């Protein structure tokens, strides 16, 4: 085993570039190569970030100098891309949403377990120092028994109907792209979900442009989550107990401070800075797990991913949102790399 963990990036879109930037700030990480169906795109990517350009996904996942593969393609491509890497014997960190539906996710988890390979959903917010501090405060009992989480994420998307955010072929919609963040963090803080109630505004392309979700958790707590491609939401997260609340300030997914407000009027703000663009912490965790021979991370387990995909399946059922993958395993015409 080399001193460095050698990463292969599958895809060359916006999220893949952000991940490549994170690797530069991650200890013991090295970008070994990038794979694309467009050789020119792979060449351009490696000129900016380094590594070897591969003219196909197949060449990348079979490269002997690649230890782990990061999948950063559009949602509907995740199933086939992750399967390809696992079949080649590579561990995988797959961008959220992990797949389009739970059925696809179950097949990939089963394959990873059969092959004893590391597999993790790239839910980077689960590994931020701010969330670790929130957990510590909650566990200390300072705010009392937790009863509610409120979380939202949204912005006004100024894109045409062909853009991946609005294109159903590319898994468009607010839920898969944005809603998964507040949902995931609510589940991380309050635990498994018992019941779901959702409403949405469906746009002209047939995808949800904003969605509101009410979750009842098995712990007895409640979470209220929302996402929008129509409005710039505060994008904050508050977890409230009987004796106070904790707020992840500014935009919760990139906050560098956490504020505690107690019922007795005492308040304090705790600094929680992160490394690089925030993705570094999930990379550190993936590398730790892979080196330890683990097939999943305790911070984002397979069960966590499957449960979250199940919740989103139920939300989509209630709001009437379906994708091609719900009736077929994968599209006959793969979408473009424009995530």
Concise account of the structure shown:
The chain is an alpha/beta fold and 339 residues long. It has 9 helices and 14 strands.
Strand content: 25-35%
What Rg is obtained from the alpha carbons, in whole angstroms?
Answer: 20 Å
Low-confidence stretches: 329-339
Terminus-to-terminus distance: 32 Å
* Overall average pLDDT: 95
Give the helix proportion (percent range). Answer: 25-40%
Structural class: alpha/beta
* Major β-sheet annotation: 8 strands, mixed
H and E order: EHEHEHEHEHEHEHEEEEEEEHH
Described by the principal axes of the CA atoms, the overall outline is globular
Count of separate DSSP helical elements: 9
Number of strands: 14
Main-sheet strand order equals 8-9-10-7-11-12-13-14
Write a structural description.
- This protein has 339 residues and is α/β, with parallel strands linked by helices.
- The chain is built from 9 helices and 14 strands.
- It has helices spanning 14-24, 39-49, 57-61, 78-87, 102-115, 129-140, 174-190, 280-291, 302-319; strands at residues 5-10, 29-35, 52-54, 68-71, 91-95, 119-122, 146-154, 193-202, 208-217, 222-228, 237-241, 244-248, 257-262, 267-271.
- The strands form 2 sheets. It has an 8-stranded mixed beta sheet, with helices on one face. A 6-stranded parallel beta sheet has the order 3-2-1-4-5-6, sandwiched between helices.
- The two termini are 32 Å apart.
- Residues 329-339 have low confidence and may be disordered.
């Amino acid at each position: 085993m080399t001193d460095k963990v050698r990463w292969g990036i599958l895809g060359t879109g916006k999220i893949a570039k952000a991940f490549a930037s994170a690797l530069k700030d991650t200890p013991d990480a090295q970008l070994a190569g990038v794979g694309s169906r467009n050789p020119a795109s792979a060449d351009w990517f490696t000129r900016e970030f380094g590594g070897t350009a591969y003219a196909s996904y197949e060449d990348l996942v079979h490269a002997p100098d690649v230890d782990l593969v990061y999948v950063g393609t559009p949602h509907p491509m995740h199933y086939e891309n992750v399967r390809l890497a696992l079949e080649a014997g590579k561990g995988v960190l797959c961008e959220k949403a992990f797949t389009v539906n739970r059925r696809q996710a179950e097949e990939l988890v089963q394959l990873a377990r059969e092959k004893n390979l590391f597999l993790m959903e790239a839910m980077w917010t689960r590994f931020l120092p701010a969330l670790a501090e929130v957990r510590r405060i909650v566990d200390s009992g300072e705010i009392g028994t937790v009863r509610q989480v409120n979380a939202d994420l949204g912005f006004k998307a100024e894109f045409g109907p062909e853009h991946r955010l609005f294109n159903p072929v590319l898994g468009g919609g607010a839920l898969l792209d944005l809603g998964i963040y507040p949902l995931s963090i609510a589940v991380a803080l309050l635990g498994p979900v018992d019941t779901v109630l959702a409403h949405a505004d469906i746009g002209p392309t047939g995808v949800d442009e904003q969605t509101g979700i009410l979750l009842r958790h098995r712990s007895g707590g409640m979470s209220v989550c929302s996402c929008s491609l129509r409005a710039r939401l505060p994008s904050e997260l508050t977890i409230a107990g009987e004796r106070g609340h904790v707020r992840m300030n500014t935009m919760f997914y990139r906050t560098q401070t956490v504020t505690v407000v107690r019922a007795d009027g005492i308040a304090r703000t705790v600094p929680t800075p992160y490394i690089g663009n925030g993705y570094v912490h999930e990379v550190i965790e993936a590398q730790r797990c892979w080196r330890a021979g683990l097939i999943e991370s305790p911070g984002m387990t397979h069960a966590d991913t499957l449960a979250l995909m199940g919740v989103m399946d139920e939300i989509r059922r209630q709001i009437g949102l379906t994708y091609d993958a719900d009736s077929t395993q994968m599209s006959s015409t793969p979408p473009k790399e424009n995530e």
